[in-house]
Amino acid sequence: MQAPNFAAKDDLLVFVEKKLTKLEHFYNKIVFADVFLKVQKTSEKENKIVEVLLSIPGDDLMVKKEAKSFEEATDEVVKTLERQLKKRKQKQKAYL
Fold it and tell me: Per residue in 18-45, pLDDT tens?
């Protein structure tokens, strides 16, 4: 997990990690996840960015979301990844 330009609190890191481990329920072949927490210097309230690069066999999934808080952005990223992983799993079942 990387947080350039600011120091992420342990609570936030634990929260993100807990959310991402839930993805293993939907797809058990996840190799690793790279997480980037960024603060964009703008006057907008939605300046927290969470990017997740999920490495899975065959291809990587990259999701980037902006929100008012890192927790909110993490929730959105996880929902999007859940959908993508479910689709991928169904495609694999179709080929078997």
Answer: 999 999 988 888 999 999 999 988 778 8
Task: Indicate the pTM of the whole model.
Answer: 0.87
Is 43 inside a domain boundary?
A: yes
- Domain count along the chain: 1
pLDDT at 66 over 90: yes
> Which strands sit side by side in the sheet containing 32-39, from one edge to the other?
32-39, 48-56, 59-67
Q: Does some domain include residue 75?
A: yes
CATH number for the domain spanning 56: value is 3.30.160.100
Q: How far is CA 2 from CA 24, 33, 53, 89, 94, in A?
A: 21, 11, 12, 28, 36
* Nearest Cα to Cα of residue 74 among 6, 5, 23: 23
Is 2 contained in some domain? no
Residue with tokens 């807990």: 18
